[in-house]
């Protein structure tokens, strides 16, 4: 699945962005928090999407059946 690869690349880019913000000593800590919050929210959504797609790849639904993705989640 190409989408899994693209999501993994996006997660890697978000990690690099966070590391860049953390390494910049010119940014005050409270501003770093404000800059990283939306990035970390995006990362959480992408991580869940990646888990869902990986689950579906490994456990494809039967024809004419709902995928049942919510059954394996803990939340």
Describe the protein's architecture and organization.
It is built from two helices and no strands. It is mainly alpha-helical. The model has no long low-confidence stretch (mean pLDDT 87). Helix 1 packs antiparallel against helix 2. This is Chorismate mutase. It comes from Sulfurimonas lithotrophica.
CA-atom Rg in angstroms: 17 Å
| Count of helical stretches | 2
The computed structural class is mainly alpha
Distance between the termini: 25 Å
**What fraction strand?**
under 5%
Helix content: 55-70%
Overall geometry comes to elongated
- Stretches where pLDDT is under 50 for at least 5 consecutive residues are none
Q: What about the largest sheet?
A: none
Organism: Sulfurimonas lithotrophica
Protein name: Chorismate mutase
Region (Disordered): 55-75
């Amino acid at each position: 699945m190409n989408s899994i690869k693209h999501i993994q690349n996006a997660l890697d880019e978000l990690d690099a962005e966070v590391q860049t913000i953390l390494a910049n000593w010119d940014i005050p800590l409270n501003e770093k928090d404000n800059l990283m919050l939306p990035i970390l929210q995006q990362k959480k959504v992408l991580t869940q999407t990646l888990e869902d797609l990986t689950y579906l790849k490994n456990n494809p639904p039967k024809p004419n059946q709902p995928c049942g993705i919510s059954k394996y989640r803990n939340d």
